[in-house]
Amino acid sequence: MPGSVSKKRVPYSRKPNDMSADEWQAELRKQFALEQNFKIRNLGDHPVYSDFEVVNHETDKTYKVSIRDNINSFNYCSCPDFRVTALGTCKHVEYVLFQLLRFKKNQKYFTHQQKHEYSSLSILYGHQRLIRLKKADNNIRYDREDAFFDAEGFLLPGMIFELDDFIKQAVKSDPTFRIYPDVFEYIIRLKKNRERKERLKDIFPEGPESRIFDSLISTTLYPYQKKGIIEIIKAGRILLADDMGLGKTIQAIAAVEIFARFFNVSRILVICPTSLKYQWKSEIRKFSGRDARVVEGLIHKRKDLYRKEDFYKIISYGLVRNDTNLINDWQADLVILDEAQRIKNWKTQTAKAVKKIRSEHVIVTTGTPLENRIDDLHSIVEYVDMYKLGPLFRFLDNHQELDEYGKLIGYKNLRTINKTLEDILIRRTKKEIADQLPGRIDKNFFVEMTPEQISDHKDYYDVVARLSTKWYEQGYLSEEDRQNLLICLNCMRMVSDSTYILDQKTNFGNKIGEIMSLILEMTEDQGNKIVIFSQWKKMFDLLTVELDKMGLEYEYLNGDVPAGKRKTMIDRFQSDQALKLFLSTDAGGVGINLQSANMLINIDLPWNPAVLEQRIGRIYRLGQKKHIQVYNLISKFSIEHRILHLLEFKRNVFAGVLDEGGEDRVMLEGFLKSVKAMLDVDLEEPNEKEPAGVEYEAANSLVEEASDPYQKDKQQDLTDHLRDQGQEEDPGPTGDQDEIVKQGILSGLRNKIKRLINRFSNFLSRKRQI
User: Fold this and answer.
1) Do 95 and 156 fall into the same domain?
2) pLDDT tens for residues 269-282?
């Protein structure tokens, strides 16, 4: 019976083996309903089969629920969850049913088939949205009914654009005939899409060779960019996921000009990272000649800025959460969502706020829509088309492989994602247009570690190895062990650069000397300009001392540099031929264009290949006229050396989902298995053996917590907590001899962790960003 809940509660985080994904999620919504305190009001005459207003006072949201039948699939709710999941129910529907069934007098209505006193047009949500005619019991016949609907009442293919004629006749002959609002919304959207596509022939009569491109914006467009612009206009809402450096910004600005000239678009909202606001303003002026207003400042100032009539408004992701209502009141015609990986985690408040921004047209740009997990891609696509990939639970059920315990072990059917997205995704790689880009060579330089580095690295390595073995034997790790593992892994990375990063007292390491040698060699050619990246600010503390000694001038960008100053630094580096060096941390380097440089040095390797490509994409991009050389400094036989064996896995996942020809099925063993696999790698001489791919699952989703500058305070609290726990007395060994030996090993491990945690926490307590 509708509204009934299973006596046995189902888990929220794991699908029971005896349930399908849809059954599990439907049952969860029934459980959610029991936990709510909504207010409902009957809007009709019938006590059960009626429309109801459902108010959630906690969120101040109101939805309309229609109870149409004693079969859930015919009910309706105006909430997004009902539309996207296609379950035929949601927590609002279940709440109404539960409240109705509390009264005995209502239960009789659910024991027999409901009489239908009126005919209606509604949408049945599923993998496709289907318009269905539900007829009244008097079986009234409508003019040309058979020409529009099949025997089950579903609209026939190709008839949706003629449906207006049927509706007019039906309403005229039957005053009780109802059309639900979502039907009108769906028809209007499809009509606009058709009209826009039909106009493409007039706007671009010769396709990419059309003359309109000659004067569209103040730069010459490449053929692939012209094709991209046509696809943007054709789709209306699109994910532009070209490789970094291929001119996504130029394509977006050019597409806006087409929308403005032919489709009455006059309000454009650009949402981007704070560091890119003024770069967007500059490039809009440069390529289109239009002014753009950056919205910033205190709330009273922002309110005034939103009221002004502007063609372009530019805001940061940080403001979206606070200004959602103000933004929607402005009623943007088109939203450009730049660096859209910022909404890859659907759980964050920023992602939720962005997805509330309403606009008919959307251009979502990112070079890395999939960084760690396929969930990332789903979250980004959801803003382009909330129905395209279906609900997340069904998407994961179709593309994840789980073991018998519900643990992720692999991905499957990745090519089907590419096929599903083909009409809303533009994806070109540098390989595809290599004839339009300069060449690039990547070189790995292996640097010997000092005895002091080796000793410290071994200490952390031993802890990681023992924790990995503990997990392998026992099947799990405690939260304390997991955090210890994170800290030790990051300490291994830091000490691979220099012991200075950890203690700010000693400086054992050879990388700075190698970098200085490279710089001196590179700058012998006056045409070379060099960009140097590191994740650690402390590494640049060492490097800048040496550069100052040599009298070498440089710009240094990190997360502490104000947005207003960044543009000045970048412009100076781009225009001043005498300025050869630009230093940047990952936190400071997102979205910057440095194509005047032709050399790039990575002092250390990030866990994530997308971050590595973002670094390289700063110089290896459209507009680059020189040959590119990338130098990766890797401490020999260190964790960095092992990271080389991890990077290829993520590239394979990325390719399988987004690029043609990628692997259809990429296996992964989970974070801890990847750590163990990394430890088990047989590191031979780098010139004698090419690094092999390792089965690997998004280690950075855990590891980067410890290095992300935005997690500093959280990590300090965590370290303090671990240190406090480390002060407790270890329980003495008990049980048989094997258990005594095991307890002794674990006790020794805990003591070593205490020493290492104390060292790391002393470093963090100085409140300096790593």
Assistant:
1) yes
2) 999 988 788 889 98
* 755 and 734 fall within a common domain: yes
Beta strands in 193-277 (DSSP E): 237-240, 268-272
Could you tell me the two tokens for 298?
Answer: 């205190």
Measure the CA–CA gap between 543 and 525, rounded to whole angstroms: 21
Same domain, 156 and 104: yes
- Helix, strand, or coil (residue 184): helix
Q: Does residue 6 lie within any of the structural domains?
A: no
CATH number at residue 526: 3.40.50.300
- Whether 55 and 171 map to the same domain: the answer is yes
> Domain span at residue 734?
449-508+708-770
- pTM of this prediction exceeds 0.90: no
Question: Is 175 found in the same domain as 137?
Answer: yes
Per-residue pLDDT, averaged over 143-169, amounts to 89
- Under 8 Å between Cβ of 559 and 521: no
Residues 300 and 378 placed together within one structural domain of the fold: yes
**How far is residue 656's CA from residue 123's CA, in Å, rounded to a whole number?**
34
- Tell me the pLDDT band of 102, cut-offs 50, 70 and 90: confident
User: CA torsion sign, 211 to 215 to 216 to 221?
Assistant: positive
State the helix-helix crossing angle for 91-101 and 21-34, rounded to 10 degrees. Answer: 60
Average pLDDT score over residue span 560-564: 84
User: Which strand ranges, in their side-by-side order, compose the sheet holding 312-316?
Assistant: 292-294, 312-316, 268-272, 334-337, 361-365, 237-240, 425-426
CA–CA separation, 365 and 244 (whole Å): 10
Mean pLDDT value across the chain:
81
**Do 369 and 457 belong to one domain?**
no
From 153-157, 178-182, 655-659, the region with the lowest mean pLDDT: 655-659
Give the per-residue pLDDT at 6: 55
In a domain, 540, yes or no: yes
What mean pLDDT is predicted for residues 608-630? Answer: 85
Residue 96's closest CA among 158, 30, 192?
Answer: 30
Helices 392-399 and 374-384, packing angle to 10 deg: 140
Residue 768 confidence class, pLDDT cut points 50, 70, 90: very low
- Measured CA to CA, the distance from residue 302 to residue 323 in angstroms comes to 9
Tell the burial category of 151 from Cβ atoms under 10 Å away from its Cβ (0-12, 13-18, 19+): exposed
Say which residues have a Cβ less than 8 Å from residue 649's Cβ, sequence separation at least 6. Answer: 666, 668, 693, 694, 695, 696
Residue 259 phi/psi, 5° resolution?
A: -60, -40
In the chain, the amino acid numbered 188 is I
- In this prediction, residue 762 carries a pLDDT of 57
- Flag whether 2 is in a domain: no
579 CB-contact burial (10 Å; exposed 0-12 / middle 13-18 / buried 19+)? middle
Question: E strands of 72-181, at which residues?
Answer: 76-77, 120-124, 130-134, 178-179
- Is 200 within 8 Å of 263 (Cβ atoms)? no
Decide if 12 is inside a domain. no
Determine the pLDDT at residue 43. Answer: 92
Higher pLDDT, 32 or 588: 32
Tally the C-alpha atoms within 13 A of residue 453's C-alpha that lie toward its C-beta.
25
